[in-house]
Every structure is written in structure tokens, then in C-alpha cells.
Specification:
Length: 329
């Protein structure tokens, strides 16, 4: 009877392939850091947290070819491989080489993946995908389970993690709020993960207080419209008047709305005010103490110290959004 175990020569070749793959992974990590790009796979659990675990799933009964360059993430093993599925130091050399050697012997069973839009996440078979990518293969056979994504969501393999999550969060936000249908003339675009959820929390809080004020149940659509017209737009209009947006390259009116909303609340707490300051005051104070351009921020601070405005100056943060993208004012 013919043995199906990989030969010693196959194992030796697999060991050399592993060494080469890890060297390429190191180069990929260095180039990613130098280019400011994210190098990790996208975590499936984080994607499902955003989408909600109750999404409809449609399993395919037969295995099918899966394009390797469209596999962007993993269930639980996203830190073990680079974005192109090369092995990091977390990967067992013995296990990887054993999987690689099997390709010359009995071959591999199909992997298992989740499909969202046009991209895939590995449920079972991370090492097989890694070996296949290292060997330059284009496809791998696998069982596919499709997961429903919100209407209009666009996911592509070349997105970095932030872009991927922002696209999901935006689609989920619009599906929940119908903002784009209620006020299509008021676009809402945010530029960092987590901010659409924060904006939805603002709507939920507004809905709660609107119900207390009117002493009745507030339909969600009514709450969204009221929030846009009575909370969001007054601040956005002041942002436009001030011209401050040009000092935060790459940011949007919606980004500044969230920063200024936080700024208003900090001012209320700092000075013991019964209510947050009016939008015009808050935007003016924010403009005087924050800037995306360091020398302009210094000029604004000096002017503010020498000639204080009506409202007390809030404490200046240690960094600005342009200096540290994830550190909001």
C-alpha cells in the first residue's frame, strides 16, 4: 500500500519555504510601517460586532474555488499572519511546514470561509491559505458561507482596516437611521472607526430628551429629523461660518461636529454651566484653542491670551488631530 505521508524531501522543501515566507513577512511589515499602512488581517469578530451577529447566513453546499487575493481576514487568527497571509513569529514552524508538505502528498481538504460582499474571512484553514499564498497560488478550494451585508456597502480587498470598518459602520448607521433618506441634502461622512456609533448615540440621547419634552413616544424617523435640524445643523452652520474646517485637512464637518459637541460638554462641566454653551460660542472657543496647523494654533493661542473673548478659554490639548490622527480634541 502506498503511504500518503509526506516524504522527508517534501518536509525539507517545506522548511525552506517557511524560512522564505517569514523573511518576506518581515520585509512586508517594515515596508508597511514605513508607508504608514496597516499590516494585519481584518478581525472577523470586529466586523460582526459592527454588523450584528444576527445577520442572515447562506451556506454553499459544495466547495468552490476562492481567489486568494480576496481573503482579507480571519476568525481568531488575524494576528498570526500579515495582510498577505505570510506567517509571523506567532506561527508554529512545525505546523506550517507539515501543512506545506501535505500539498505534495495527499493534498488538502477544503478550507471554510465567510464571504461578505466581495471579500472572505477564514474560519478554518489559515495555515493552508498561508502556504498557498507563499507558493504563489491564485485559488484555494473551500466551503463558503455568505453573510448578508447592509445595502450599498462596498468592501474591497485593497482597503486597510480603518477603511473597511468605516465603510461597514457607515452602512450600518444609514441602515439604522435612514439619514440619507430623511435629509439627503445633508451628507454625513466620518473619517475614523467608532464615530458613526458615537453619532448614533447622540441621536438616541436626543430622542430620549425629545420624548421627555413632548411627553409622548418619538418615532425614530422623527428623532433623526429633529436631531439633524435642531442639533447637528446649527453646529455645522457655525463651522462653515468660522472657516475652521480648512485647518483640519482630511477631516469633515461631521468630524468637527463630534469634536465640538464634546468640547461644549467639557466647557459646561469646567465652568459649572447649567447648559452647554451656544453653538456659536462653542465653535469660536474651539477655533481659538485648536488648529490642525501648529503655527496657526500658536498664533490663535497668543491672540486669545492677549485679548480674551467672552467665553473662558478651555485647556489646550497636547496634540491636534493633524499631529495624531486618532487623538481627537
Amino acid at each position: 500500500m502506498t503511504s500518503t505521508a509526506p516524504s522527508g524531501a517534501a518536509r525539507a522543501r517545506a522548511s525552506l519555504q517557511f524560512q522564505s515566507a517569514q523573511r518576506r513577512a518581515l520585509v512586508e511589515r517594515v515596508l508597511s510601517r514605513l508607508g504608514g499602512k496597516q499590516q494585519h488581517l481584518i478581525p472577523f469578530d470586529e466586523v460582526m460586532r459592527i454588523l450584528g451577529y444576527g445577520r442572515a447566513q447562506r451556506p454553499h453546499r459544495e466547495p468552490e474555488p476562492i481567489p486568494l487575493d480576496k481573503i482579507v481576514g480571519s476568525v481568531g487568527r488575524y494576528r498570526d499572519f500579515t495582510r498577505s497571509f505570510l506567517p509571523t513569529d506567532n506561527v508554529s514552524r512545525e505546523r506550517w511546514t507539515r501543512v506545506a508538505a501535505l500539498l505534495e502528498g495527499p493534498g488538502w481538504p477544503p478550507i471554510e470561509v465567510y464571504k461578505l460582499g466581495d471579500v472572505y474571512f477564514v474560519k478554518d484553514g489559515n495555515h493552508r491559505v498561508s502556504v498557498a499564498r507563499a507558493l504563489g497560488l491564485k485559488e484555494i478550494e473551500g466551503y463558503v458561507t455568505e453573510i448578508e451585508v447592509p445595502e450599498g456597502v462596498s468592501l474591497s480587498p485593497d482597503m486597510n482596516i480603518d477603511e473597511f470598518l468605516i465603510n461597514l459602520e457607515r452602512a450600518q448607521f444609514l441602515e439604522r437611521t435612514r439619514w440619507h433618506e430623511i435629509r439627503p441634502d445633508v451628507p454625513v461622512v466620518l473619517t475614523a472607526p467608532g464615530r458613526y456609533q458615537e453619532l448614533q448615540e447622540h441621536i438616541d440621547v436626543h430622542r430620549y430628551y425629545l420624548g421627555l419634552e413632548k411627553q409622548r413616544y418619538i418615532p425614530y424617523e422623527e428623532a433623526v429629523r429633529s436631531f439633524i435640524e435642531n442639533v447637528y445643523l446649527p453646529i455645522v452652520e457655525e463651522i462653515r461660518k468660522s472657516g475652521i474646517l480648512k485647518e483640519f485637512p482630511g477631516r469633515t464637518e461631521a468630524d468637527l461636529y463630534l469634536w465640538i459637541a464634546r468640547h461644549r460638554e467639557r466647557l459646561r462641566e469646567r465652568y459649572g454651566l447649567p447648559h452647554p454653551p451656544a453653538p456659536a460660542q462653542a465653535v469660536q472657543d474651539f477655533a481659538q484653542t485648536h488648529s490642525g496647523v501648529p503655527w496657526r494654533r500658536l498664533v490663535k493661542q497668543l491672540h486669545h491670551w492677549l485679548k480674551p473673548g467672552e467665553f473662558p478659554r478651555a485647556q489646550t490639548p497636547s496634540s491636534t488631530p493633524s499631529q495624531k490622527k486618532n487623538d481627537d480634541p
